[in-house]
Prior knowledge:
GO molecular function: aminopeptidase activity
Distance between the termini: 19 Å
Organism: Pollutimonas bauzanensis
Keywords: Aminopeptidase, Hydrolase, Protease
Helix content: 10-25%
CATH architecture: 4-Layer Sandwich
Strand content: 25-35%
Amino acid sequence: MPCFDAPRVGYLPAGASDRITDVPGVAVGHATLSRGEVQTGVTVIRPHGGDEFLCKVPAAATVINGFGKSIGLVQVQELGVLETPIALTNTFAVGEVATAQFRQAVANHPQIGRDWPTVNPLVFECNDGYLNDIQAFAVSAGDYHGACRAAAADFEQGAVGAGRGMSCFSMKGGIGSASRLAATAGGDYVMGALVLANFGCLPNLMVKGQALGRLIGNDRRISRFDAPAAEPEKGSIIIVLATNAPLDARQLRRVSRRAAAGLARLGSVYGHGSGDISLAFTTAYQVPASADGPAPIVALLHESLIDPLFEAAAEATEQAIVHALWAAATVAGRGGRRRLAITEALPQWRDFF
């Protein structure tokens, strides 16, 4: 279970660590940049420990609100597979990280782009410019490679990696993760979620039915320096769902849509300026890159049995966002701006649950 205290949402049981890495084979790594006005980083999710280009996993995405600058979604939607690790970073670093993914794939397979097809990089972003000097273009290819090397089942949450400079409901946001167990008539499966949480208006924040955002906003003990400004929704959230349930890309797209239910439970309205994207993948089987390899023969979960996975996706997403808020520490960055940790802004939070 997480090494930090946070409200427990929902009723489904969690996996052993309550993280996306409860799905066997999944690993997460961070590279964190914290140098004065540079507060940013890269987070990488690896679906398995092998070669993602040669051994692809089924995947699909849902664009809840499209105010985003990600790369690679078009081919994922068309072909329904992942070819690289999933990378998360800030908006202005998308090109740098995508180039690093190109170079990584070509270094492993010089035939790519010549004798073989090209590779589809997959990079998601949120704008961390409130705390981070995003115009410094500080993220490098080395940071992406460092996050890949650090990928493991045990990883930190909060103001780390791509989440270092992110804000959530005008509090400190960042990386959060959770897992839920889904019992179906076709078998028992794990649903894991990882979020890059950088969204929400403070007055809308609801946790387990408690209007915590309004309590924080009305708290006179918070200094004017620390008080979050009343501002419209203009952040973003990236939600990555992983499961070991045998689903195809069409079914995974249905699962990815249910992340929006977990997002809404906390008070998001998917505002005009918010880029809200959910991607789901399964580790139940792999698709070979070459037609020479045998195609997988998989007994997919019947459509009528999928509801427990929908519930698990919504609940794991909600819990992952809560974990992002409660794991994050207060961070100061560009121009002396600060985002308070919710545990600092509302130290008596346990009294409400």
